[in-house]
Amino acid sequence: MATELIIATTNKGKINEFKQLLEGEGTIVKSLLDYQTISDIPETGVTFHENAAIKAETLCRLLNRTVIADDSGLEIDALNGEPGVYSARYAGEQKDDQANIDKVLHELQDVPEGQRTARFVCVMAVAQPDEETIFFKGQFEGAIATSRQGENGFGYDPIFYVPALGKTAAELTSDEKNERSHRGKAIQELLKYKNLFDL
Ligand SMILES: O=c1nc[nH]c2c1ncn2[C@H]1C[C@H](O)[C@@H](COP(=O)(O)OP(=O)(O)OP(=O)(O)O)O1
Ligand SMILES: [Mg+2]
Known about the structure:
This protein has helices spanning 12-22, 48-63, 97-107, 174-180, 182-193; strands at residues 3-7, 27-31, 67-76, 117-127, 134-144, 160-162, 167-168.
């Protein structure tokens, strides 16, 4: 039987990346979209670690199975690290990617090119029944562009400029993004520490 990895997320962009990063011979990825009867898990924490733990531990308890969660966001230096943990709801509770991007571009309208540095942060929590939750982290350094470029990815990708490649994250192929992204790096750390079949 295939190993099922359960990710406590409803974000389709994340789910696609988890599938590209982890699925293969004998391993399939499931998400909250496969457990429609489970209601939304409120993210009441004030740090990525707290929210990742809340999501992973809540679903772990409900299913009595190992669960992975990803809490991530965009830290913009000129905004003192905002929107950070609040990235998904930056422009309101409706979690609208386009409205969030518009708000970032507006906030940064007078910030010159050299001062638009930012990073994506991902904290991944692995919750297992009767064990301490463990955490893995990844960061992806870049800068905020002045307009949208590219169609790939999700969330803030169209305005996240990757200097080394001269493209936004939304102009990268999924392999190019996964090799260097916050989520890709957190998964690499997880896999250094744990075999997928132990999850
Ligand atoms: O690679 C990324 N490329 C672009 N944007 C990204 C990325 N990674 C995180 N982000 C943004 C999306 C969202 O605005 C926030 C995550 O918020 P976060 O609460 O972790 O996820 P979510 O609410 O969309 O789904 P869920 O909590 O069900 O996993 O950061
Ligand atoms: Mg969320």
